[in-house]
């Protein structure tokens, strides 16, 4: 298994496949294609919402309908419900070219003119046919019900299709277009029931009825290929764009032209869109990237966006009831234009862009949260690895005046492609802290990352004949920059003022070079003492930074193409043209390691932040990892396309790569960071080959490229999952899943104590807690990973209850219908009694109701009826509860009361009439029920464990294990809401001055549970909140009884030790930050 696993790809926005726009409620969403996957943006802020699963082939057509997305790849159609693939449509033999959804139909057209009609909402399971005629659609309610039975429209978990794509649907019908009619577009005209309009390469159009599968009418056309077609908001009108740049607005009902336009820019028309908001406008996109907007009322040109996209406009769409135009281009960009200016000219409102051409240089920045990237499209960008909306292009200045004067595109005025990047984060807020060298440009340019713009100054090397700058390096302090040129010169500049400081020369002659060939690498050590440089002359040189004197000069023996310097150990990795990488010790001035193995030109070198690993990539499609200390290979993997750039994150958790002819940046996860693998576990046995290397390309495993979403660990390869900015929604779903698993584990574990004692009945929750304990690293603290509101609200529960206190008095609950017998409950909720408990419920209403005096205490018969009803509803009688007391008692009979009954009467201040002789038995010491104390029922004659709540029973079982195992109790706490946790803690509250030993024992068990969990350093935030709530409820009782007060120091020590470890870490970090800030 390779050391680096595919994680995800960034920088992909859209491709040249037309997008699909849909409106859900008041929000508008656009679905775009990105190679073999698709993603959905919210048009309000162009925020990424969903990312689909990667498909086996590139997407050729895309459309959406409600919560479903249809993506055509090859000769198949993948069906997605939100982001999960739920089906695959197979009915074509040729590649699919067009897709259209209208009403309840999905139309697909392939390259051999075959048209297949599918149900857009459902289908048939296991290929079953519908009743009736095969190949024909069915209308009416019966047909719609049959379509909905298929399962594509059902959400996962509701009996729908599985998400592995194995669920197939049968088409409703199919037909073939006439010979010579090669379709290029398909639309559904409004109000034309079951009819679609096809456009062809020869300029003709045909109107078909998909229900009867018959040709209704053929339009002669214009004799040139139709490249775009769109329906108009006006009835019977469509707009047709042709390859000659003309746009025809045509009335299909009368087969007569309405108006003709000629696109402002040369080339074929590629996209059309009508405006439905106010002024009637028609937007036209072309091959050159320009967008023309025509006024249909005045029949003249309204406005032109000359360089809307760098390349072909793939799709256009006006948003409903808004003056906004959405455009997508083949330049990997998605833009929204707004018509709000005085002259009605559109301006750019929002956009998401990536590299239109493959990137050539990358570098991690800002603690690994961002990546600096420069591409062949002459753009310099910063990408966020956390939030896509933070990615943007750095401005190179305002080119509008120069563009109008010189009549050229913006790309012509941009700087040439970047060949080298270096940066120092420490000076980001002070001055320009990024330096770049550009192809064929003699100057090095500086950039201000705080404002995302190019700097006002530039680093210009002195000399009569300026040569292009080829390499650059910024010192760790951010004050100095080295610039090397193609003529072999090496110069030192001050970044703040851009002044030239030192010219490094081997001879005492003005403007003499530092190297005999092009400088290919430069660096400054961590303490600004030495400068290191290398060149095509095959020499590595170490210079005194300030004086410019030469200290070491080492001949490698082969031209050097790349160099990477590590500031922590003063080691430089040098890649040569002989496919070998060397390690040069700048402090000792000699070569210390040699790493052969590549079989083609080395394209990039990188060193891990700790200096232990060396990573190299070459044109032989391999990426190799070497152990610097031992000089042996650690890992190697092969990719489909060659890597041209490498950069490792400062925390070593991710590796970023850029590839030949790929427009994205690919992230790879470092497996050693998450699995606890040591370098000694990765080092293979040494194997000597004839060329001195240790591996061959045949033995290197091939891996797949990262996709837009993370890969799962299952056998399915890619796992469909959400990649959305709504973290709360995803967190809530994960919490509900965990709660359901914990509840299932608790239900399975309550069946018998013997299973719980051995740990077999604890289910998934207990196993997860045990695994967490086994993987717990000493000295570290793990979190419960619950939503923040769950444990914060537990601490602030009193404040929340005070804020949510009702203003009006509670209303009496509605009475149940007379024919549905009910039983009284303490909460006031209506519970219907089963047939065998109906008699008990009736007696509860007759003799257990609250008397006219207003007594708040339930009667014996009423409580007995509740218990009998609850036991009957669960299918078993509760242990210890008899049925003798469930008899009906007549009104007016006065019962005898025991000692506790008299005390309860004195506390209540009012006399109650329970009736019957049995009432006195309920009040005696040996009776079944004692009295209700402050809202809590105290039961007599029961075993102590049978009076416990579910949480207390789990704690008891955990305390009986050796050693104690509270995994089930922890799972229950995680599954409970804050109010439920508070209720569980209050259930054991001590309210009497002389409590029973069982009451004290329950509180002591809770204290032992909290002490054990606090010492384990797991579920830190949850246990701190529970401990806070426990002490707030039981604090006064614990201080009042010596038995509990004796256990308090141990609990305090456990809580202090867990917090002290975390506080020491925070204090250490604060000290380091204060030291760095003050130094």
Describe it for me?
There is one protein chain. The model is unreliable at 123-167, 685-694, 710-739, 745-775 and 837-942 (pLDDT under 50). Helix 15 (950-960) runs antiparallel to helix 16 (967-975) and helix 17 (978-986) runs parallel beside helix 19 (1020-1040). A hairpin with a 7-residue loop joins strand 58 (822-823) and strand 59 (831-832). The longest helix has 31 residues, at 1048-1078. A five-stranded mixed beta sheet has the order 6-7-8-9-13, with no helix packed on it. It is built from 21 helices and 61 strands. It starts with a strand and ends with a helix. The chain is an alpha+beta fold and 1079 residues long. The radius of gyration is 38 Å and the shape is flat.
Termini Cα gap: 45 Å
Structural class: alpha+beta
The strands making up the biggest β-sheet line up spatially as 6-7-8-9-13
Q: How would you describe the shape?
A: flat
* Largest sheet, strands/sense/barrel: 5 strands, mixed
Low-confidence stretches: 123-167, 685-694, 710-739, 745-775, 837-942
Show the helix and strand layout:
Elements: E1 4-10, E2 20-24, E3 27-34, E4 37-42, E5 47-51, E6 59-65, E7 68-73, E8 76-81, E9 84-90, E10 96-102, E11 105-110, E12 114-119, H1 140-148, E13 168-169, E14 173-176, E15 183-187, E16 195-200, E17 205-209, E18 214-219, E19 226-231, E20 237-242, E21 246-251, E22 256-262, E23 269-274, E24 281-286, E25 291-295, E26 300-305, E27 313-318, E28 324-329, E29 333-338, E30 347-353, E31 359-365, E32 370-375, E33 380-384, E34 392-393, H2 400-406, H3 410-413, E35 418-423, E36 434-438, E37 444-448, E38 453-459, E39 469-474, E40 480-485, E41 490-494, E42 499-504, E43 519-524, E44 530-535, E45 539-544, E46 550-555, E47 560-566, E48 571-576, E49 581-585, E50 590-595, E51 602-607, E52 613-618, E53 622-627, E54 632-638, E55 643-648, E56 654-659, E57 665-670, H4 672-675, H5 679-682, H6 727-749, H7 753-758, H8 763-775, H9 788-795, H10 797-803, E58 822-823, E59 831-832, H11 838-847, H12 860-874, H13 899-908, H14 918-923, E60 929-933, E61 936-939, H15 950-960, H16 967-975, H17 978-986, H18 997-1016, H19 1020-1040, ...
Parallel strand pairs: 9-13
Antiparallel strand pairs: 1-57, 2-3, 3-4, 4-5, 6-7, 7-8, 8-9, 10-11, 11-12, 12-14, 15-16, 16-17, 17-18, 19-20, 20-21, 21-22, 23-24, 24-25, 25-26, 27-28, 28-29, 29-30, 31-32, 32-33, 33-34, 35-36, 36-37, 37-38, 39-40, 40-41, 41-42, 43-44, 44-45, 45-46, 47-48, 48-49, 49-50, 51-52, 52-53, 53-54, ...
Helix pairs in contact: 6-8, 6-16, 8-16, 9-17, 9-19, 11-12, 15-16, 15-18, 17-19, 18-19, 18-21
